[in-house]
């Protein structure tokens, strides 16, 4: 079930400038959310915003009260009409600097290292891309690691545009294969290098048509695959051991007719889904 948590800003400095979110990352304690934005759909220029969810929700009186207040506050700010009440909400969001953020949808949090990472790629097989570490305080890139993906047989892959970390700090990305299936890769990503291997079991039937994100739920040890209006999941352990069966795959299909941009889970398993048009953060309860 999907429930609105917050209507997020769409206009902050000028009309519609925060209208293109690409990913959401919620910290394990659920107190903070990081959202990656693109300046426009045809560019890789973007930025990251940190939301103090705990203080925002407290200031708003809970998730069921005044869910549009933050959006109204930023809109008023763009018109130089922000009230003291508006400004009291704006202090709980921090806008990072603009830089090359790739597609933006790969923003992920490594809970073991307590680090934010994303990947940049030109989408061409065998060519170098980069893994980028971002400071959670300044929201600026602090480290870049170049890498490319070529298997032992010499087959070349495009550097991943999705990314997730499990509670042990292992990294994952997923990509569509053929017309229906989905492949999953597992590896490591840190300051010293990037290494991935194909997991020898994937999904024969992928969720939806447009692959938006991969994420990990530490509460039930499952990987989730997100596309517009569809979410599938599978136990990581069974996938790794090549023991997953069709019964292990859970799928949820919605009828929102919205773009599902990203999904993130707290340590307790509370899910947060970000949708586009207009930007909205939703709490999601799925298995």
Structural notes for this entry:
The chain is built from four helices and 23 strands. It has 287 residues and is mostly beta strands. The protein has one domain: Tachylectin-2, Chain A, CATH 2.115.10. Strands 2, 3, 4, 5 and 6 form a five-stranded antiparallel sheet that branches. Strand 11 and strand 12 form a beta hairpin. It is globular and about 60 Å long.
Write the layout of secondary structure elements.
Layout: E1 2-7, E2 21-26, E3 32-38, E4 45-52, H1 53-60, H2 69-78, H3 84-90, E5 93-95, E6 99-100, E7 108-110, E8 115-120, E9 129-134, E10 141-147, E11 149-150, E12 156-157, E13 164-165, E14 171-177, E15 181-190, E16 193-198, E17 211-217, E18 222-227, E19 230-235, H4 236-240, E20 250-253, E21 260-265, E22 271-275, E23 280-284
Antiparallel strand pairs: 1-23, 2-3, 3-4, 4-5, 4-6, 7-8, 8-9, 9-10, 11-12, 13-14, 14-15, 15-16, 17-18, 18-19, 19-20, 21-22, 22-23
Key words describing this protein structure:
287 residues, mainly beta, Tachylectin-2, Chain A, five-stranded antiparallel sheet, four-stranded antiparallel sheet, 23 strands
């Amino acid at each position: 079930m999907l429930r609105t948590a917050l209507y997020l800003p769409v206009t902050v400095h000028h009309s519609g400038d925060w209208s293109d979110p690409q990913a959401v990352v919620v910290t394990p304690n659920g107190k903070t959310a990081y959202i990656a934005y693109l300046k426009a759909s045809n560019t890789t220029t973007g930025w990251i915003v940190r939301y103090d969810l705990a203080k925002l929700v407290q200031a708003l009186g809970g998730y069921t009260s005044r869910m549009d207040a933050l959006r109204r506050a930023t809109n008023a700010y763009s018109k130089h009409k922000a009230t003291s009440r508006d400004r009291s909400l704006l202090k709980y969001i921090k806008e990072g600097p603009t830089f090359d953020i790739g597609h933006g949808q790969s923003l992920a949090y490594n809970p073991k290292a307590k680090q934010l990472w994303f990947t940049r790629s030109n989408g061409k097989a065998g060519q170098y891309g980069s893994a980028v570490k971002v400071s959670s305080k300044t929201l600026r890139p602090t480290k870049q690691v170049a890498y490319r993906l070529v298997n032992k047989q010499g087959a070349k892959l495009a550097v991943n545009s999705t990314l997730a970390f499990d509670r042990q700090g292992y990294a994952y990305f997923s990509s569509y294969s053929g017309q229906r299936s989905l492949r999953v890769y597992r590896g490591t990503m840190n300051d010293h290098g990037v290494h991935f291997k194909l997991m020898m079991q994937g999904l024969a039937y992928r969720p939806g048509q447009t692959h938006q994100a991969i994420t990990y739920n530490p509460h039930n040890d499952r990987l989730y695959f997100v596309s517009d209006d569809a979410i599938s999941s599978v136990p990581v352990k069974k996938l790794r051991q090549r023991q997953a069966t069709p019964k292990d795959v859970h799928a949820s299909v919605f009828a929102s007719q919205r773009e599902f941009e990203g999904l993130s889970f707290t340590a307790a398993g509370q899910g947060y889904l970000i949708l586009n048009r207009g930007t909205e953060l939703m709490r999601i309860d799925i298995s």
